[in-house]
Design goal:
The structure is a single chain. By secondary structure, the chain is an alpha+beta fold. The protein contains 2 helices and 5 strands, in the order βββαββα. Strands 1-2-3 form a 3-stranded antiparallel sheet, with no helix packed on it. The longest helix has 23 residues. It is elongated and about 50 Å long. It starts with a strand and ends with a helix. The mean pLDDT is 95.
C-alpha cells in the first residue's frame, strides 16, 4: 500500500490514498487544511471509530459520538506537538462515561 503526496506549488500538496481518494493539503491553511489538522483528523477519526466499535461489541447502543481534539504546538520551527488530548462525548443507552473512557 502507498500514499502519494504531490507538490502543487507554494506550500500546497495533493494527497492520493491507497484507495484512490484524493484531497489537498496547504501548510498555510488558506486553501486547504494544514498537515497538522489532517494528522489530528486521522487520529481523531481512527480513535472515534475504535470507541464506537468497542462500545457496540460490548452490546451498548451508540446514538452519537463526537471526538474533539485539543492540541498545543511548540513555538519554534519545526512546529511539533507539545500535547494532544482527545475529548469524547457519546450518547446512547446502557453505557457510562467510564465505559467510554475504557473504550478510548
Amino acid at each position: 500500500m502507498s500514499i502519494k503526496v504531490k507538490w502543487g506549488g507554494g506550500c500546497r500538496f495533493n494527497v492520493t490514498t491507497a484507495g484512490g481518494f484524493s484531497f489537498n493539503v496547504d501548510s498555510t491553511g488558506t486553501q486547504a487544511p494544514c498537515p497538522t489538522e489532517v494528522l489530528l483528523s486521522a487520529l481523531g477519526s481512527c480513535s472515534a471509530t475504535d470507541v464506537v466499535l468497542m462500545l457496540q461489541e460490548q452490546g451498548f447502543q451508540v446514538e452519537s459520538l463526537e471526538n474533539s481534539i485539543t492540541f498545543v504546538l511548540t513555538d519554534s520551527e519545526p512546529r511539533l506537538y507539545q500535547s494532544a488530548n482527545l475529548h469524547f462525548v457519546a450518547e446512547g443507552s446502557g453505557f457510562t462515561s467510564d465505559d467510554v473512557l475504557s473504550a478510548a
